[in-house]
């Protein structure tokens, strides 16, 4: 199986450790992973903002970069959702039959990380060890657009020595929503503050999610509150194994949990 990593724009710019953890995890499971260097944005920011025509070049780059792979794995429910559901809308609007065919071939091969592990590889125990108190936030696109359901939780429950705590009102949006956080900042902050309050109520050391954008948003609020709660991507927890030292603990979490939002 030829597998490619879609690192995502945010991952490439601010959270490179998430992509590295994804590759480390998949290789530990026997999957050979390529990183097509020509990959760029999936087009989601333009699409979500209504700029469908402006997203066409991004789609062309996407299908060109990932053409020929059996699977494309991304540590982002929102980017996977864009590829699987929104790309077809943009391609149809473009009126380019070649782009439509390329999207039809590529889109079904794009998988959010937990989907790929559970549905494609058929594993829930990935050999991870993480002896810390953790709570999990299911991100909106992974939950509602992709329907990953409890796959991330099934993976986390198999992690050695983890103390997994239920997050109150877990399915409520964290308030990030991409450009929503900029255009509707007050509402976004209020929603994020509710999420941060629920996270703190669990007593967890680490907040885990499958999208770095949500972790950046809530982590910023938790940092302002000096809560001591760190944020980590699902891939980072699943890539952790006994004996990795700092890579296995809350210290491996993104620094954004300590910085102002």
Automatic annotation (TrEMBL):
Q: Which GO terms describe its cellular component?
A: cytosol
Region of interest called Disordered, as start-end residue ranges on this chain:
241-261
Origin: domain of life: Bacteria
One Pfam entry for this protein is CCG
Residue limits of the Cysteine-rich domain? 3-80, 134-218
Q: Which GO terms describe its molecular function?
A: oxidoreductase activity
Q: What is this protein called?
A: L-lactate dehydrogenase complex protein LldE
